[in-house]
Amino acid sequence: MRKVKIGFIPSHRVPFGEEWATEMRARCLAEMKKVPGLEVIVPDSSMTQNGTVRNLEEARKVVKLFKDQEVVGVILGGMTFGHETSAVGGVLAHLPKGTPVLHFATKGKVAADGTRPSDSWCGQFMITSAMKRREIVFEHIPTCFPEEPVFGEWVSRFVRACAAHQEFRGARIGQIGARPEDFESVWWDEASLQHDFNQTVVPVDLATVFMQLDETAADDPEVKRAAKEIAEGIEIPEAGRESVTTLARIEVTLRRLAEEKALDAMAVNCWEQVQTRYGICVCSVLGRLVDQGISCACEVDVYGAATMLAARGAGLDETAPHFIDWTALHPDRENVWLAWHCGNAPRSTCDADCRPCLMEHSILPLRPSWGTLEFREKTGPVSCCRLAEYDGWFTMFIGTGEVVDLPPKVRGSYGWVKVADVMDWEQKMVEHGIIHHGVMIHDPKVADALESFCKFNGIEVVRGA
């Protein structure tokens, strides 16, 4: 599981209750430790008084701590009334622009003598207005005690959003070959990716890939290991067995290329040159690379690869995303649609009752074309998403549903997905120019995390019902 370094500012204002502030800090940290993937970076009592932040001198120490530890995001909490001058002006304003921020205020109490040690509900409005003035983008937890479920839910969502932010921003995406001539929908604007997200598209022509593939020997130890893994636990028709070594060779070639070019993801030309030259499809190879941590989109879909990066990060690297087509509506069931692609699904998504089968491509007429891995995906809740861009404006469609075990069986790798209102999805996708490719990940928490991720990155969110 990915560990995400998040800075925590326990903000306190003198003369509010010192003991109460210290207690709230401890209670917040106790609950944060329960959140998967979170590594809290927080000042302790050797750095600031009681480990809270109350003045500019302490704020300067905290800024250094956060920068030294390279925190990805910051949680700012009012332990008492809070001190916006140190918390916002002293810390947040000195961190890299665009650092994700999660804000909350703790609930207080009234003592027996009628005094109040906190008033954090009041102080939060000073803190949030200070962030608003500085155009600091933040999410807000409704005022609560840290033991209330809403606190842990929002912190978990924030950690996942920060992981997506970390995975997505500054990514290097390999453009492997030219896009299909008749797929103008997979165009991208490299300048917008650079300007908005500091991403780099690294072009690699297929001739380079083929040259390196031809130099990758069948008896290379990595190739032999990959071939053994490819063949384990799947059905392979006799006619397709000779293709396994070639599939292993191209897998090793692409993985080495990703290492050489420091690629975080690849958008790969997958037809028809590779079929014509080598008699294989790279579909199953891309699925294996996704399971190995390299997000791979088909048909040179650069925005699709970027979407996969965000989804993988929001899943804390625990679940492999599947690059899909939004393919068809179910012939009989309402609000059920087909998440499908030719045979590129990561094997980790296969249903336990389904045995994968290596097949020739079910649509492309070229033969031979071994290399699609066909199976039914596991059932359960999923998040679906897709990044789109028009005239420099980015939008992400996000929806949740459930993969259900329904007939009919479909060639390729697939899952029938039940949602609340598929026509709502259709209308919003059409209106916002969402193309035929999407990303599905078997993690329902990814959807909300991506919504926060989009807010931090200036991406418009469209949620499907």
Description:
- With 465 residues, the chain is of the alpha/beta class.
- It has two domains: 165 residues, Rossmann fold (3-Layer(aba) Sandwich), CATH 3.40.50.10940; 292 residues, 3-Layer(aba) Sandwich (L-fucose Isomerase, Chain A, domain 2).
- Helices cover 36% and strands 23% of the residues.
Helix fraction by DSSP (H/I, runs of at least 4): 25-40%
What is the 3D form? elongated
Largest sheet: 6 strands, antiparallel, barrel
β-sheet strand percentage: 15-25%
How many β strands by DSSP?
A: 18
CATH architecture of the largest domain: 3-Layer(aba) Sandwich
Labels describing this entry:
single chain, about 475 residues, alpha/beta, Rossmann fold, L-fucose Isomerase, Chain A, domain 2, 2 domains, six-stranded antiparallel barrel, 14 helices, elongated
In short:
Helices cover 36% and strands 23% of the residues. The protein is an alpha/beta fold and 465 residues long.
Task: Chart the SSEs and their pairings.
Layout: E1 4-11, H1 18-32, E2 38-41, H2 56-69, E3 73-78, H3 84-91, E4 101-105, H4 120-133, E5 138-140, H5 149-168, E6 172-176, H6 190-197, E7 200-204, H7 206-214, H8 221-231, H9 243-260, E8 265-268, H10 273-278, H11 283-291, E9 295-298, H12 302-314, E10 322-329, E11 336-341, E12 357-360, E13 370-376, E14 380-390, E15 393-404, E16 413-418, H13 422-431, E17 437-441, H14 445-456, E18 460-463
Parallel strand pairs: 1-2, 1-3, 3-4, 4-5, 6-7, 6-8, 8-9, 13-16, 15-18
Antiparallel strand pairs: 10-11, 10-17, 11-16, 12-13, 14-15, 14-17, 15-16
